[in-house]
Amino acid sequence: MAGERVYIFDTTLRDGEQAPGFSMNMEEKMAVANQLARLGVDVVEAGFPIASPGDFQAVRKVAQEVKGPVVAGLCRANRPDIERAAEALEPAERRRIHTFIATSEIHMKYKLQMEPEDVLQAAVDAVKLANRYTDDVEFSAEDATRSDIDFLCRIVEAVIQAGATVVNIPDTVGYSIPHEFGERIATLVNRVPNVDKAIISVHCHNDLGLAVANSLAAVKAGARQVECTINGIGERAGNASMEEIVMAIRTRSDLFGLITNVHAQEIYRTSQLVSRVTGVYVQPNKAVVGKNAFAHEAGIHQHGVLSNPLTYEIMTPESVGVPSSTLVLGKHSGRHALRDRIRALGFDLDDDVLSRIFEKFKKLADKKKEVFDEDLIIITEEELMAVPRSFELDYIQTTSGNKVLPTATVCLKRGEEAFQDSAIGDGPVEASYNAIDRITGFPGKLLSYQIRAVTHGREALGEVTVKVKFNGITVLGRGASTDIVEASVKAYINAVNKYMYKREKEENNQGNGS
Ligand code: KIV
Ligand code: ZN
User: Is the pTM value of this prediction over 0.90?
Assistant: First the structure.
């Protein structure tokens, strides 16, 4: 397929992750970053290094380990931010410093308290300073859609002159309407004399539900980089959704005549991974990746699709990697078969990890008989993203019913030591959580609890995701089992372990003075 390229700049780990309720720990960020590389995005924005030591470390680790995409770090248009970003990005094969300053009247006056000429100078200085560390420098004019167009043209020209190779025009507050945004991009493309020396990028928020439509209008008008996130996660109503942008450009190549480098078959898996690590499920009717995105319910539609899929299907589920849920392995399958299947699913594992997964697989196959790809993905990711386990579940026993007081006895292991306690609750799950709190000595406040069946049928693996606050620190826990009480308990223990890991890391950081 020929055609000019649209670069895909993924900001799931920065704009996505910074939204409340979407935070990820280091292991989860790495899993997402590696999957983004597999997906074939051009740029991974890994974080905002000056924002916190955790952000700095995440950007540095992505820069060290993720191969393929350019790794970008965000910074405001000032020296300390830029130097910190440069330091975090230093190990990357290819690095980009992404510096920004607001250009709208309202932001300059009330937020920055700066005169427009000073903003312009700060932008130019920032780009020049960033250029000392890398020749790949992106400048963003924050709140560009509410900025005076003449001023915007001037600042875009000035930063390109200063060395910016990408100039980003964000619709920071999701205010624009597609035809208007397209015209703004066209104006920049036509009026800025040195515009051909840089790539024009767009970054749209979804406050009016128009982020994808605005981004596509901009592409039509000449933008050649789109900033977006998996599942559209991000501040407030989110960012433009990557899967929708990529599939729109691909499905309507007749209209756009453009290509991206994204391997569309990896889209579904990436979407599921982001959903799992953030604990935020994808809405069923979400375009491209929702559970119902390819489900034809109405009889008339089903009849049409059976006669010819093109009657109602503009893209196939296979094209975005939706699995067909075929039976893959059973309890007689051996280690080699498991390794081959896991490899086919895109995981490259060392022998130790494979052995642990094999053990889990055997237990699951004993209970469930038919093990599907989705089950394997869950147990593999559970293992890959595991934090050091302070506590492990040894056993649980619960009693419940509509005429008895729900009671749970839980035994946890910490190394060789076993701890057992019992408690009552409103149901077996709450009783188990109370028993665990008695063992650990720090009560958790359950902020959210979600359960879903990973595959279909009565024997399906149930996956539980909990959000729990311990001593002011919120963590996400996940657990899977064919028994939903056990899955619930595993999720809670996972949250306990994450909390202890986080607390220990914070204590170490304080000890090191960082
Ligand atoms: O929304 C926005 O303006 C941003 C910039 C920092 C690019 O996220
Ligand atoms: Zn943004």
Answer: no
Shortest CA distance to 140 belongs to which of 99, 178, 177, 105?
Answer: 99
Round to whole Å and give the CA distance between 41 and 38: 8
- Of 140, 171, 235, the one to substitute when testing ligand 1's pocket (max ligand atoms within 8 A of C-beta) is 140
Which distant-in-sequence residues (6+ apart) come within 8 Å of 357 by Cβ? 338, 342, 349, 379, 380, 383
**171 Cα–ligand 2 center, Å:** 8
Which of the four pLDDT bands, split at 50, 70 and 90, describes residue 373?
Answer: confident
Nearest CA to ligand 1 atom 5: 142
Report CA dihedral (500, 382, 466, 271) to the nearest 10 degrees: 130
Ligand 1 near 170 CB (within 6 A): yes
Among 180-184, 211-215, 382-386, 392-396, where is mean pLDDT lowest?
A: 382-386
- Is residue 252 domain-shared with residue 350, that is, in the same domain? no
Minimum-distance ligand 1 atom for the alpha carbon of 227? 7
Please check whether residues 372 and 401 belong to one and the same domain: no
Do 52 and 32 lie in one domain? The reply is yes
Q: Which atom of ligand 1 is nearest to the CA of 205?
A: 1
> What is residue 231's predicted lDDT score, i.e. its pLDDT?
98
Atom of ligand 1 nearest to the CA of 100: 6
Q: What is the domain-level CATH number for residue 452?
A: 3.30.160.270
Residue 317 lies in a domain: no
Residue 501 corresponds to which tokens in the numbers above? 């890991």
Same domain, 9 and 142: yes
**What burial letters (b/e) apply to 456-482, b meaning 16+ CB within 10 Å?**
eeeebbbbbbbbbebeeebbbbbbbbb
- Residue 359 within any structural domain of the chain: yes
User: What is the distance in A from the centroid of ligand 2 to the CA of 89?
Assistant: 20
* Both tokens assigned to 492: 């809670």
- Cα 211 to ligand 2 centroid, rounded to whole Å: 11
- Domain end marker among 242, 259, 278: 278
Range of the domain at 176: 4-278
Count of domains for the chain? 3
Structure confidence by residue, pLDDT tens digits, 93-126: 999 999 999 999 999 999 999 999 999 999 999 9
Distance from the CA of 159 to the center of ligand 1, in angstroms? 17
Same domain, 436 and 359: no
Ligand 1 pocket check for 100: Cβ under 6 Å: yes
Instruction: Please give the number of the atom of ligand 1 that sits closest to the Cα of 239.
Output: 1
Q: Of 132-146, 343-357, 423-437, 485-499, which range is least confident?
A: 343-357
Report if residue 308 sits inside a domain.
no
Shared-domain flag, residues 219 and 353: no
303 falls within a domain? no
Detail the DSSP E strand segments found in 173-214.
199-204
